[in-house]
Amino acid sequence: MSAQMLRVTEIEALSPLVKRFRFEHPHGAKLPLFSGGAHVVVEMPDGDMLRRNAYSLISDPQDGSGYEIAVRREDGGRGGSRFMHACVRQGDMLRISTPLNLFSLDMRARKHVLIAGGIGITPIIAQMQQLLRMQGRFEIHYAARSRREAAGLRLLPDLPHIHAHISDEGRRMDLGAILDRQPIGTHVYTCGPEGLIASVAQCTERLGWPKGSLHSEVFLAPPPGRAFEVTLARSGRTITVGPHQSLLEALEEAQVEIDWSCRGGACGRCETEVVSCHGRIEHHDHWLSEDEHSSQTRIMPCVSRFRGRELILNR
Amino acid sequence: MTIQFNDETFRDDYSYHNSAEAIRRFPFPFDKDDYMYAVNMEPHAGGREGSPFENRFDVDEHYVAEMRDREITLNEDPLRCQSLPHMELAGWDLLELIMECKAEDYPELFSLHRDGDRWHWINRPLGIDHKFTFLDPTTLPYGPMEYITRQAQGDFALLDQREGNLWMEAGMVTSQADWSLDFDIGMNFFEWHAPVPKAHEMGIFQRALKFLLAIQQGAPSRRLNWTMTVNPRLDTSPENYHKWGPEKRTLTPENVGEKQFLRVELQTFFRLPRSNGLAFPIRCYLISLQDLVTVPKWGRRLHRVIRDLPDELAEYKGFAVNRQLIIDYLAQFDDGKPTSPGIFPDE
Q1: Closest chain A residue to B96 measured between Cα atoms?
Q2: Do residue B162 and residue A34 have CB atoms under 8 angstroms apart?
Q3: What does the pLDDT look like over A76-103, one tens digit per residue?
Q4: Which of A191, A312, B47, B201: disulfide with A120, CB 3.0–4.6 Å?
């Protein structure tokens, strides 16, 4: 995973829970451009721990002068977002990966409907910038609980085809109404909670949309769970994965060479062969097929866990 | 570095030739004495000095002649270059990538000056000096992909990435080993590889696709592929099979060393920034058997590879009809001695 050290040049509170961070090259060098929907992985040296979280880029994909992300503080999370909120200061240097896109626009679409729930607005901001630049036809539907919490409002321009649905103002998002009137050739992109993505999938299925015109991104943080042990076939070592640690993080802590990219179960980079499994792998990824899940022959260490007597990995 | 560009042809009188230097730097594809498919990818991050792996886009003594040959092929068959409408942004990505790389790697041959979106491109070997506006197709004589690939050796496919697959939806293909862009355009990775024998059962394509989907910006990959071609012809397309297919029957024990060429493809894969597409340049290198055997290690090894190759691979690669002739010719250069590992000649 290629990455470079960038300087934090701006921090701004977008809402009580969401902060915007801007990163620039310390000598002003141009950063690699990207496509709307891309994310970067931010490395956070937090005491003895090196945390790595993926965040969608919200800045203009065509602007190499800096990268911007918006981070929601998750008090019940594993600590990455709390670190960003509490410890990162303007002027700090952080290691930021090259952008990677697992949620890109389908350029065949005649029209793009972008649907966001909560902090899921972030990748959609950059997709919007790309569409504005390319003069693509689009509309945005952004659902948030309250105006105060709706950090995305600060990032969206005031345009008639950008709609905010604020539920405590009695304007809940009506997916049926949004999707029912779209022209043929429209693609829909959803980012937000799994429930929202499932609702869009159900609604479009009912309306007879082709599956290929649905796109979604659910950013999985590695779920916590019970501690478990894993044996590494190549060295014979056994390591313990803590309750708030991912298997990938435990492997990194044990200095095991392992490739990774999204750290959210979507990109496939850290896919690992299971040599032997006596127990049940708790698969949380969107990468392996159902057959691969049920056969328990592969695991995605960034998000998946294990319960049982013995798990041996080809690492 | 100065390159002396050859005046040569890839059709009719076939005056194509390799200098001693070009023979020595030829990308011989076999790192051991036998061959089977593998996902033989490695980072395209430079390589031995002077080798075709050193730069991101290799420019060699055949550059000017290859571009002339491409123009002839395109005049006869404009469908060799196609780009579906949604691939235009990927075309700009490719134009930027090639211009940047060539200007950095060969500053005496190519220059690129940028002032915002106003670009100035100079290609000295082809005598091009052109100012245009980036992302404005009205300022170029062709679409961006066609414009730049008329100035870059090798074929180019632009792949769109969606639904966990790659889709061949734009390309410039005039020096292909018997496949057709016009036939394949719009197909996904599994569809366009459907004719390849054995590899599907081996799970090669599943693994290769996963690898390609994960290629990241700034971290290109490469692999070598190969086949055999009678006469140094770039355009061995299905469309023109009637022109080159019959030439396979012209081989004799007397002329096989001169007329039979090993054809090697240096395939590279680049993630494109703006479109998130994948650029797939396929650069073709040709070497006659008589030139190849001047490197003793290669003569020995090629004999063993061709002799022991499974029949269906010789069939698929289209040289089964001449296989025995080739083996008999190469056998003279195989004294049975062991060969050193790796692809490069012994010092």
Answers
A1: A33
A2: no
A3: 777 889 999 999 999 999 999 999 999 9
A4: A191
B163 touching A (Cβ < 8 Å): yes
| Contact residues on chain A for B273, CB-CB shorter than 8 A | 32-35, 99
Angle (CA) A267-B208-A249 rounded to 5° is 35
Measured between alpha carbons, how far is B270 from B95 in angstroms, rounded to an integer?
12
Write the pLDDT tens digit of every residue in B289-345.
999 999 999 999 999 999 999 999 999 898 999 999 999 999 999 999 999 999 999
Tokens at A18, concatenated = 């969401």
Nearest to B263 by CA among B6, B1, B18: B18
**CA torsion, ordered B76, B77, B83, B84, to nearest 10 deg:** 140
- Please write the tens of the pLDDT for every residue from B204-219: 888 889 889 989 999 9
By Cβ distance, the residue of B84, B210, B218 closest to A98 is B218
Backbone angles phi, psi at A176, to 5 degrees: -55, -45
Of B200, B199, B156, the residue nearest B66 (C-alpha): B156
Q: Which two tokens stand for residue B96?
A: 């930027």
Distance CA A149, CA A152 (A): 9
* Count of CB atoms situated within 10 Å of the CB of B194: 10
- pTM, full prediction: 0.90
How many other CB atoms are there within 10 angstroms of residue A154's CB atom?
A: 13
Is residue B223 flagged as an active site residue? yes
Residue of B150, B223, B233, B300 with catalytic role: B223
CA atoms within 13 A on the CB side of B71: 12
Domains and CATH numbers, chain A: 3-101 (2.40.30.10), 111-217 (3.40.50.80), 228-313 (3.10.20.30)
Q: Are B160 and A268 an interchain contact pair (Cβ–Cβ within 8 Å)?
A: no
Model confidence band, residue B1 (pLDDT cutoffs 50, 70, 90): low
Partner-chain residue, chosen from A61, A130, A267, that has the shortest CB–CB distance to B214: A267
Q: Please tell me the distance from the alpha carbon of residue A43 to that of residue A37, in angstroms, as a whole number.
A: 20
Task: Give the closest residue to A162 by CA, choosing from A187, A133, A131.
Answer: A131
**d(C-alpha A29, C-alpha A67), whole Å:** 12
State the best of B158, B168, B206, B216 to mutate against chain A, taking most chain A CBs within 10 Å.
B216
Residue A139 has pLDDT above 60, yes or no: yes
Contact B276 A98 (CB under 8 A): no
Contact yes or no for A107 and B161 at CB 8 A:
no
By the CB < 8 Å criterion, does A289 face chain B?
A: no
